[in-house]
Records
---
Amino acid sequence: MNDKRMKDALENLARRGVPENTNLWPELSAKLERKSPMTTLRTRPFAAVLLALIVLLTLSGVAYAIGRSLGYIPGVGIVDQSTPLRVLAEPVSQTRDGITITVTDAVLSADRTIVVVKFENVPVDKLPNQEDNSDCYPNPALQLLQGDPLQPLGSQGNDWGAGSEYHYTYGAVPEDINDATLFIGCVPGDVSPRTLPENWELPLRFVAAPPDMTALPVIEYAPTPAATGGADSNQITLTKVIDVGDSYILMGKFALQTNSAGYFTPGMRTLLDGNGNFLPWKMPQDSVFPPSNPNEQITSEDWAVQVDKGFAPPLTIKLTRSKSYPNADDAPLVYEFDAGANPQIGDEWQVNQTFDAGGHPFTLQSIQAATNTDMPGAYGYQFNFAPLDIDITNLYLSINDLQFMGYTQNGNTDGFGYFVGYSELPKGKLKVSFSLEIRDPQEWTLQWTPDDASANIVTPTEAPQACLTTDSWQAALANPAPFPANLTGKLVAYGRTVEDGNDPNPANTGMFTINLDGSDKQALGQGMSPMRSPDGSKVVYFNFDGLYLVDLTSNTTTRIPNTADGDNFPRWSPDGKQIAFFHTLDADLYVINPDGSGLRRALQGIDAEQLLGWTSDSRGLYYFVNTQNGAELRSVDIETEGVTSLFEHDGYYFFDVSPDGKKIAYISHPNNLYVSNVDGTGRELIGFMGNLFIGPPVAWSPDGNWLIVTIRKPEDPDIAGFPLPHALVSVTDCQVIPIPWYGDIFNWVP
Amino acid sequence: MLSGYIWYKDNVDETQAIQRLKQGDISGLEYLVARHQVKAVRTAYLITRDLGLAEDIVQDSFLQVFRAIRGFDETRSFEPWFMRSVVNAAVKTMQRSARHVQVGEEADESLLAELAARVESVEAQVESIEVQNQIWDAMQKLSPRQRAVVVQRYFLEMSEKEMAEEAGSSVGTIKWMLNAARERLRGLLERSEA
């Protein structure tokens, strides 16, 4: 036997059983909605915030009802209040080997039981990595006094570095049973073979809910506010709203198409205020979705958002999805041609046939028998398409369903090419089948206006005055100011090094140094996260096997001895004598001298410490860790390993520390940018872009008076090398100047 | 999408997707799903022989990715990491179910012999539906772990070293299973090529 023949047999068997247009995303995204939020949210012990909300919403033009006695208990979720509720008598906690598991809350209602479990101090290097991903995903069993244990019907969770919190939903516990044991087999993230304590048993006791406990009303909409857009505007609905005091939780459904395989992306969910500005929103962490029924066919996705009050109404909810073609209901995209009995490399067939992908024509111009330098030993056909008016994210092509060796796509302004290679050149009559994934975004929009009187709407105010706004950016683009003469030095970036009209590839894309005005661009080759030394003589970057150093004087590149695979994101110390980096395998911080000597661990922690930069005295490092509430900035003294907590914010990203080590730039939502002192004081809103995103990488000017940030439209692809505009923003006098060249800018030194 | 040559831009995109996912951007997962789902479902299907089950397994594996991505080193290739997860999940699922022939996890020579006997008795090309069905039927007689070994070696084209490291059982058993399967299948398929 030849192994390839066996592979062919298995490949054919698999193809027979699993169609090419398999699409898991609709169901998967629905499960994600139930399981795990994207962003963190404060979890407040419900006992502290069990406020009775007496006010009912009066919703303009929309009928509503408080249905089925549903109530929302902050910190827990939605429960049925038609029978008396029971709660956890008191939190139950156990600590073993430094790891603490706490059952913080439980609510028992007529239809379900919600149990909230918190895991703390879990060493992050026990989380799975590429070496072993057999990680623990506990589904705790709730054992009652008799009978089989209850298994969770659904869960929602939130991970943050060294901790996590899960809301598990079970069936109802009989009214006469007030004791149970929660069995937790393993700690989330523990790898196999297990190294962390296993088989936890937490005894739970339930009591009647206190008489003053009142859940917040859940307003059910019937009918939903009308939606617009998309192929079927009725696909998105708003079904429930909860007023939780300082914010709203809105919930609804998105109906899946009968042929759900047609949709392959989920989409992007966007909230806009009445002025068209993006509103930050969070996924509710509590159990707001009904438990899933494994025997029920999924016909819709649940969605939920939590948005702070104080926005200018109406609130607009947009959902954007993209389609793939052909779907099961569409005509197959097929082209047949006769290659003859003995086709030769170089033979060409003119086709010029136009196909339809859901209303988007694309034209196959020609086919050529060819080889490809990227695929030695392969013989195949090159398919040449005319320039396309649509954004194809992927094209799949097969000939007579033969097993191919490989394929490669290439495109430029003259068209789009696809080479598929085989061990032998296919002969005779050939049937070519295409399928495409195209960006064909469809948008559904739903508007909702809370009632002013009852919802305590804050009078809409102008956005706080920021330096970088949509208006100041547009003005700067229209009339670019010259760069101040004192802004000198070199920048290091990643992007196009050769303008050849082709898609990005190693031959035309890489690291480079450049002047602020775009002059003196010098390619440095392939690498990641390039950082120039403070004296400007060297660039350090990381690659797949360690850290590398480019000597810009001699133009030589050397691998730094004693660095290894997993050493990432290097940062020069201000004195240029040391390089700090993040090691991905143990998620700790290290320091090394540029010649490879003096390697030592600067910080060993249970969190994933994400390196930002050095303190100005070159004795300490700034880093951040994810927390349950967002992200926390810390510093560590590399001699003593003494850690100082600086401040926490509810966003998700810190950018970079200023060259003097005194300021930090960060965002709490993609359309804003803050600068503050490293202890969190003196916070200033530098950027507020409304409906544009401010993104990384971010670079400080050498004098610490300017920041360079990327400006991105929501529809721009977030991929390396994509030409995004950059703004130079003064943090001292608010001047905004566009950068006249493209590339991801990593740092800027004198 | 299948075992296609992955060109550079795709790798850049994948790294970006993982970085985005690490920051909680769900579109990163969308990219990974779109890119790996078909091969993953086919892998699980060859082990479970049930499309619905295979899809469930792969969905769960992607959910695991969503949870575990923060510990993933994006400078490494995603696919081997993910496919190991799918194979393990498929084997575990089948071991928990009653859908497979109950055999021990150690290599069962009689079953491999039966597999060989079935495929050797066929004198057609391996591409033929008949031969594929024979292999399909023969694989049904293997335990989930044994089936996974065949799928890893021939469908996912893993090396013996990778498989031995991955197996979690003795290296000798894995090598024996592979050698036995390979030797016997070789006879069939070389004849069918003639």
---
Amino acid sequence: MSAQDDVVRIDFAFKRELARKIEGNLANYCYQCGACVGDCPAARYSDVFNPREIMLKVLYGLEEELLGEDSVLWECTNCYSCHERCPQQVKPVEVIISLKNMLADRGGEPGVASKIIRTFQTTGRTVPPSPAIDRQRERFGLAPLKPVPMDEIRAILGLEAEADAREERQP
Amino acid sequence: MKRVAFFPGCLIPARHPAMEFAIRATLPRLGVELVDLDGASCCPDPIYFKSRDKLDWLTVAARNLTLAEDLGLDVVTNCSGCTATLSEAVHLLGDGELRERVNSRLARIGREYRGTSRVRHIATVVRDDVGADAVRESVVRPLQGLKIAVHYGCHLLKPSRVMQVDDPDDPHLMESLVAALGAEPVRHRNWFLCCGKACQGEDIPAAMMRDLLSTVHDEHADILGMICPTCFGQFDHGQKRVGEMFGEDFHTPPVYYFQLLAFAQGAAYDELGFERQRFKPECLRAYQEA
């Protein structure tokens, strides 16, 4: 909020969108006690990452600060200490992951994440199988990696429907 | 023999097969039969995949859980990431509405999540179903005098309401498993810190790993023992980078617990794949020669 603002304007559209994500609505229980900060390793090692501030911005619905260019969300260590400490069961880490879902919906996901997800969508694994790894496994007397039934994965993720829709859109 | 559905995940079978070898070599000797889960996919990973779409993440996890339900067995994981995803999925799917949403997707492939299998990390299985005494009895090469700093990582313990493994502020699981090898478990001052793998920037994980490694070093630990392949990657590959960044050489070899167990049960040092590590636990060789 800028200094000129006398009134806090809450962006309810943002908050409703966040609430549709699994456990995205939990920030509403946050009373800003800061218990999450004391145990947060990212807060200990960074001047910009602070889970209490992130929850405050969620309460106001400050989309630009949360999902904008300099978003700090991806500095979260995902250690779950805030989840452990929160007396209100806000699960700040889960709210942060829900915010990352919104970031992904807006195309703001980091490249490393897109790459790993593409690997999963083609192989069903996040580390792809290869002849080299199977040779290494053989050295330890381990069977080659089994293929993942990708038809099942694509069906439950709705990837087939997406591909069909793309085809229909083709002239 | 206790039968469990073995969920190896991605990192261990596809990047660290030595760890899988060690698990398959040690668990049957402790009375645990590992039944392979045909058709399992990535758990999926709790950092990147979950950050794209939580409902997709939960659906893929639920599918994996149904594979174990078909066998009527509990799921046993060997990676803290898989443990986190699958345990969290069981917890979330306790909610009727969410379970219905997920099951409507699973119905497309004729599957249904029922919630009949528990999820447990192998370290927990060894503590609860095997017991430290049986581990100690299986050891033919006690690691007397070896100081093993304990690294729990995050997702074995937290969130404790979901994981229900140990007290996250004062855990004893790994200390008891390390002591069962005849080694001396060392809890260093920064034992509770995270490996930082999930952070996109380099600064936070580097500073955190430096602090962690320096307190391990202060305790004169020979090895950093752990139960998660992601933490392992950070402390092996990452330790080299941290050393370069800060101009310090902590030289603390990280070792996955079940490789230590395999070694203590008599596997040869050269069988265990340590040559692929950047920081090799050469200190173990003395026990082989003894």
